[in-house]
Structure formats: structure tokens, C-alpha cells
Amino acid sequence: MNVAFVLLTYNHDEPAGIERSIASLTRGLRGLGHRALIIAAGPGTGDDGPDLLRLATIALPRPAREEDLMVQLADPGPAATEVRQLLAAHDVDLVCWVDAVWGLGYLSPAPPAVRTALMVHVPRTDAPFRQSLHHRPDTVLTVSAFMLKELADAGVDTRCWHALPNALLHTAEAPSPAAREELRRRGPVRIVARAEPHKGIAELLGAFPAGLERPVQIVLAAAGFEYWPGMQDQVMDQCRALADNLPGVEIRPALPWQEVPPFLAQAAATVISSTSPETFGNVAAEALLVGTPVVGYGLGHLPQLTGAAGRMTALDAGPTALWRALTELLEDHDGYHAAARQAPHQVAAHTPEAVAGAFVRATTAGTR
Description:
This protein is an alpha/beta fold. It is built from 14 helices and 13 strands. The protein has two domains: 2-167 and 351-363, Rossmann fold, CATH 3.40.50.2000; 177-346, Glycogen Phosphorylase B (Rossmann fold, 3-Layer(aba) Sandwich), CATH 3.40.50.
């Protein structure tokens, strides 16, 4: 089967969950013998491979806002025509709109013979989302049972949707029990996040506890999109200013995708401080894969993903409760090691090939 994914913001090593999920899904599809293409906006980069197709009719600034895209699509005809031509030229059997807007789901520019799928990674019930559903995609996919309930509660009929988890693109070796014990006693707390206000990093730093006595290393990355001009710079400046006045706290630059699991493997624990629900939780999944316990707010899919491999707190208890839960976990020898042992089991099924197989079954179950 020839499959194409449309995600205009896609770039290699983009520090964003949707882009990473598509990279892992396409890897899994190729591992199963399918051809998987990604259609993205220009401009191209030196990391583009033969299966990344760039649109000549859409060029995005970096970082881009949704408003920037909609200005270019005021007349959507040229872009829609180019997408249809690419799908026909590459004999695509199935095209997947990865988002209502950034994935062109609201336009759904597919030739009549090509099956369509819509991905819904984040909750939205706005006009582009409704228009995407109005095109009657053959399959609708989301990333978790949380999302099925969230959209159903918002009045969307999700009964025929499929919950397809994100796959883990890269892995690393988990520390031995002895090394894990040393990390529990003296290892750093390591956090990986996009420079987005709802990731809660500034609030977490603002509640930094006295006497933690271990390094806190935060990888903060800017993606190719933001919600308002200067958003990511504002977040980074605020977090750096806070970290400068805290002992042992370091803000680090973005990591390539393949370096994230080894980085998290050598952490005592990680903290997911997102104040909006994580619809899946890529960073948490990567930490779990290498046996690193997760502390976070009990929002979205994170509690189900983490299970007994960490500690969840209530959002209304604030970031102080996150630090308290982290400290209690690190001081609990037996509880900590039980969480570390359980962690890889939480995500063992999230391999690229397994998720790709589920994707194929969902998208080939029926036709219009």
C-alpha cells in the first residue's frame, strides 16, 4: 500500500509530538513493506529524504502561526491542485490528513479513488475541524481513549473512531538495577519540553524547593510553529531567568530525536508539568521505555500511560505538589524501583511496526 501523510509543519527532528508520531508511524509502515510518504510545506532542508515531498504552493516561515498559513490559503485552489497531483503521481492508495488545518483536513484535496483518513491529535471543535468531518473521511484516528471521551463530551460522534497510540521512534538501553539505584540516590531530574506556556516549566521553576540537592536539567526546544509572535522566545527567556537564580538548575538546548531516550535513561526521574491535558505523552513514553519513573499532573492520557510507573498529582495542588511527589518517590526505595521495573511494560506494545499494523487494519477495514 502507498500511504501519504499531509503535515505542513513536518521537519526532521522537529521538537513536536505530532511530527515525531508521524516519523515513527512511517517507519513502522516501511518496516511492514508499505511505502510511506510525507507531504509538507516548503522550504526544504538538507535533511529531506526522497519520501518527504515539499509543496511549491505553500512556504511557511519559521516559526509559523496558523494565521500565516490561512493567509496563503485564502485561495486554496493552487495548493489543493498540487496535493491532488502529488497523490496521483505517486499512486497513493490512502492519504492521511494529520490535522484539520496543518494537515489540510478541512480541504481534503484527494482524488476520488484515494481513501482518506483524518487524524485528531488535539481537542478542537472549531470550523476547520467540523469541515474536516463534513468531508466524510473513510477513517478517523486519534491517539488515546482520553481523546475519544474528550471529543464525545464536546458533542462529537466518536463511536466509529479508532484510538491509535503513538509509537516510539527511538530507544535506548535501560540502566541496570544497580545503576538505577545510583540514579535514585544522586541522579539528575531531567525534563524535555517544547517552549510552550502550557508545558508549565516556568511555573515548575517558580515553585522550586529548597534543599533538593540534585541537578535539574531541562531541555527546552523551539518548534516550527507557535500561537502568537515571539511566544517561544518569551517562554525561553522566562525559564532561563528563573533557572539562573536556582542552584543546580540548567536550561539545555534541543536534542535530536535519537538522543532523547538515552538522555532520559540517565535521569532519576522526569516531570511532566503540562497544565493542559497531554493527549498522549511522547516524552513520558520515552522515559518509561528506559525505566525512568514519571511524575506529573493526572491529566489527559498521562495517568493511563504511566500507570504504576510514577506518581500523579492534582492540577489544583499546583507545582509544589509535583516537587513533593518527586521527592517522596525518590526517597521511597522500594516504591521507586517498583515504578522503574514497571515502566518499560507500560509502553512495550508501542513499537513502530505494531502501531503501523493497527493503522493498516483501521484504515483498510472498509471503504466508502
